[in-house]
Amino acid sequence: MKTIDRAELCFSQLNSSCRKTMHPRSLSVLFYVILSSISVLTVALNLLVIISISHFKQLHTPTNLLLFSLAVSDCFVGLLTVFQILVIDGCWYLGEQLCILYYIFDYVVTNASIGTMVLISVDRYVAICDPLYYPSKVTLKRVRTSVSLCWIFSLFCVFVLLKDNLGQPGSYNSCSGECVVLVYYVTGIVDILLSFIGPVIVIIALYLKVFMVVVTQARSMRSRIEAVAVQGSVTVTIKKSEIKAARVLGIVVVVFLACLLPYFCIGLTGDKTLLNASTATVFITLFYFNSCVNPLVYAFFYPWFRRTIKLIVTLKILNSRSCKANLLIS
Question: Per CATH, which fold does 29-324 belong to?
Fold first, then answer.
């Protein structure tokens, strides 16, 4: 009978301890560097968005309120990445109560992030496809209500999803040092439909419609310009705008799918879905990386964001009148 090396156990003093996932040292260092970079970058970028929108009064608009909600959820996702650093070796050292709290917090903020992305796609759809009625349809009050319902719904869903785990945290762990929750197959499928497949369909459908409208308007404008014999550089500009619209919308959809699809595929593997923090580290990390990309996709394309970064970095934001700064100048 082979003797187990105590150094390979999560808790060397316990015979019931789980065994560590032994990685080559170089691979472990690589994981630490990648996860730490994602965590720091995600928190920093989203904090810039949060400070910008909350401080400058000119940015208190319905669309920016959605960006604010997205940045808050994504900032928390960046903090959650720290837990993935702690479980690189496959061991959970923080106790059973913190294990279930981690899953609750993780579910709420990640699903709030996805829900806010759906709200942003709806906002942009109305703004581009129905611009005349946009001010009356999309108001601050309605956006606040929608954002609040998004967070409340995420909180409600997690208690339904993990209700059997809340009463006895750690009851599904097979050994000490494991952080596992049980999600029944039917419940997991419903959750995937509501938190992934549904949002993906909505986002893709709305962005395709927005893209078609943008391209149609650009071609119509180009036709009018050509009709009055004003071609050359102006025509090239219109073509570039079409390409830029395609690129931005493509980044939104492709990054979203690439980061989230592997993680949610875990939920389709078996009659009962066990989410193990050790075996799912790579998929969860990729899932979290989407929150690092979000501020780049949704915020860095706005000129006002680049201006607010300069004001924050140069500490001009400390000026009492800075909140009234004109950030929307051309």
Answer: Rhopdopsin 7-helix transmembrane proteins (1.20.1070)
